[in-house]
Structures are given as C-alpha cells and as structure tokens.
C-alpha cells in the first residue's frame, strides 16, 4: 500500500531539548511536554471571546458537578477526588482568564474561580460529607 503525501498534514513538533533532557527522561515525559507545547500554541491562537466562553463553560460544568452532589453523602475518598477535580478546574479557569485584559468580566470570572477553589478545598477536607 502506498501512502500519498498529499493526504498527510505536516506537523512540526519541535521541542526544545532542555525541556526533555534530564536524569531519567522517558517517552511519557517527552509526550507530556509535546502535548503541553501544542496545547499552549492552540490556546494562544484563541480570541478573547473564545477564551471567555471557554471559562464560562468550565464554570457551568463545575457548577453542574456541585449541584449533582448536593443531596448525596460522600465518602472521604470520593470527596477528596471530587475536591481535587474541582480545584483543578478552578485553576484552569484562573489560567484562562489571566490572559484576558482587565475588565469587569475578568474580575467576575476570577471571583467565581476563587469561590470554586474555596468550595473544592471544603469538599476535600470533608465539610460536606
């Protein structure tokens, strides 16, 4: 079987060697670095509206998770897992919003991210168990 070049998209994955070199670098570490570089490039190409919409979507997803666990009892391990996930979502929202220019929308989203982070810590510590 012959593979035609015209059907393949050319991807140039260039990774700085200083990021990959280390004591015991494995393929998994190399792949993590490559994917984070690609994700960063894709993120930089997004417009302010797309970033704002992405942040609002993450807030919505997080609030849905909080709503779903309102009337359920959580074990300590489940609470810690959910708390970790919500905390990571709050940090991602903060990271997304940090690239936006100063505005009331940015402050609003940052406040929500802070609130979600606080609630995530409470869930992790078992306040709602």
Give an overview of the whole structure.
This protein is mainly alpha-helical. 68% of the residues lie in helices and 0% in strands. The chain folds into two domains: 1-45, no CATH class; 47-129. The mean pLDDT is 78.
Give a nutshell description of this structure.
The protein has helices spanning about 15-20, 25-45, 50-70, 75-100, 105-125. With about 130 residues, the chain is mainly alpha-helical.
Task: Give structural attributes.
mainly alpha, 0% strand, 129 residues, single chain, 2 domains, 5 helices
Order of helices and strands, N to C? HHHHH
The count of helical stretches stands at 5
- Rg for CA atoms: 20 Å
> How many domains is the backbone divided into?
2
Beta strand count: 0
Shape: flat
Percent strand equals under 5%
Report low-confidence residues grouped into runs of 5 or more.
none
Structural class: mainly alpha
Whole-number mean pLDDT: 78
Instruction: Give the termini separation.
Output: 59 Å
Helix and strand topology:
Layout: H1 17-20, H2 27-44, H3 48-68, H4 76-98, H5 104-125
């Amino acid at each position: 079987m012959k593979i035609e070049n015209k059907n393949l998209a050319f991807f140039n994955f260039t990774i700085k060697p200083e990021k990959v070199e280390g004591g015991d670098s494995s393929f998994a570490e190399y792949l993590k670095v490559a994917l984070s570089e690609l994700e960063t490039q894709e993120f930089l190409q997004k417009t302010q509206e797309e970033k704002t919409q992405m942040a609002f979507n993450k807030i919505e997803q997080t609030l849905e998770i909080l709503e779903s666990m309102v009337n359920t009892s959580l074990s300590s391990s489940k609470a810690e897992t959910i708390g970790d996930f919500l905390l990571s979502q709050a940090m991602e929202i903060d990271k997304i919003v940090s690239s936006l220019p100063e505005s009331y929308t940015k402050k609003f989203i940052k406040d929500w991210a802070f609130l979600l982070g606080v609630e995530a810590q409470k869930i992790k510590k078992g306040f709602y168990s």
